[in-house]
Amino acid sequence: IYSYLYVLPRGALRKELVRCLRYHHINRRIHGKSRQKSCPIQDYISIEERPAEIADRIIPGHWEGDLLMGHNNGSALGTLVERTTRMTFLVQLKDKDATTVRETFAKEFKHLPKGLKRSLTYDQGQEMAEHKLFTKTTQIQVYFAHPHSPWERGTNENTNALIRQFFPKGTDFSKVSLKNIKQAQDMLNDRPRKTLGFLTPHEVFSKLLH
């Protein structure tokens, strides 16, 4: 995966940052206990503690996640987007409670190699309340964005707008078949992207798997 950094269509990488990738560590501060009144998530790691290489999209395997809400917030579709390749997983959810989301997201990541499941950046929605158990199960570190700051998960927010082309606001996701969800996923991942040198997310992601 490290060698693949040099063929991604993103121009010259900063040598000093690449040199530090294997050795850079940060002291993580655990948040949440002092914010119990304002945030339902306890013992979380803030996006402020996220390593620089994640923000710069240099190393693949860092994801952003969200729920796309259905009609009257009664149903939801899980969305997971890899920051470097824009590979997108659309996740059918039977419910949007924390246990269902944790188990279903973990299952979605299960088939990926370790190098492609490094971190997940999420908002402070209650559905990620079991983040510590999710990390224990998957070894994927979860970072939490600031409240009301969708730009901190810009890749996911932009992708959600594309997903709405298939599932407009008001969609009842409990009535959408898994087949239709995966068809939409395939169409998203087979769409050439300018930021990828007009390759598709599927093409770039597949090169990381082989």
UniProtKB/TrEMBL annotation:
PROSITE patterns: INTEGRASE
Cross-referenced SUPFAM superfamilies: Ribonuclease H-like (SSF53098)
Domain Integrase catalytic span(s) in chain numbering: 47-209
GO cellular component, one term: cytosol
GO molecular function: nucleic acid binding; transposase activity
BP-aspect Gene Ontology terms: DNA integration; transposition
Database matches in InterPro entries: Integrase_cat-core, RNaseH-like_sf, RNaseH_sf, Transposase-Integrase, Transposase_IS30-like
PANTHER family recorded: TRANSPOSASE, TRANSPOSASE INSI FOR INSERTION SEQUENCE ELEMENT IS30A-RELATED
NCBIfam families for the chain: transpos_IS30
Identification of the protein by name: Integrase catalytic domain-containing protein
Organism: marine sediment metagenome
